[in-house]
Amino acid sequence: MTEKFADFELDIDGIAADESTDATGTNMLGRALPETSHDDLAELVAKDRTMDATQLYLSEIGAAPLLSAEEEVYYARRARRGCMKSRQKMIESNLRLVVKIARRYMNRGLALLDLIDEGNLGLIRAVEKFDPERGFRFSTYATWWIRQTIERALMSQTRTIRLPIHVVKEINVYLRASRELAAKLDHEPTPEEIAEKVGKPVENVIKMLKLNERSSSIDVPLGGDDDNKALVDILGDEGADDPADVLQDGDIQERLVKWLDELSPKQREVLVQRYGLFGEEPATLEQVGERIGLTRERVRQIQAEALSRLRELMARHQLDEKVLFRD
Fold first, then answer.
1. Rounded to an integer, what distance in angstroms lies between the CA atom of residue 226 and that of residue 224?
2. Domain residue spans in the chain?
């Protein structure tokens, strides 16, 4: 949806002509015009148009109503059966969630509209994989996918060495195509596959992707929500036993969903809210109780029951609960 705002042609001469001035360098509103170079004016106009595009996009997505829990299940079931209208309904009704998450990653190297574009890819992926029968709200599940696509885009597109803007745009086209192909093909796409998708020569794709290769600081912040997580925080210690090795055949988040599916809906909801699973903010016993209409003590009891059951399930995979639930 945001792709319509991707490119803007700047008519600097035309814009400059609209600002009528007299011989003293004062415009018709009586304000003295600052000395502005052609490049500075182009940058100002580009910023103004970007803001206009952002506001227009936000106003457009604001027209789509949010889905109730019942509607969410209805459309999700139809989407899983191949109904494209229901799939589109799920996407359009959650575009505001993407914007909310994308805002947390501003000032990290990508413009807000670019962050939203990347987050929308995660939203689409979440719609494709969401199973309403597991008892989770879609927003809870989608948040994780949206954050993952945005963070991966930040890691692949932000760079220390400045490249010309037209080169950056071309690289981003290839990177976007690469991610879309990877989601469909379940493997890292080759330059030939990328070239075929974007309709460009293979040599051009290889050349541009080489320009994208760079060194990264392990101290660069990665995550949103002000958690200050850096690359160094997620690098594994090759000399230590890594419980995640057990999960190399699948995504840990998807495995967690399967384990939680073994619990009752109430137990699942308590754990999701208490431990901040799938991008939720961790909540206190009192906060969870207020949200689901139970006392603090009853929430604590449900949590204890759920953790006991979950420990049994995780023990089969030789995993400790701390692998998933970190304070």
1. 5
2. 1-18+42-146, 245-327
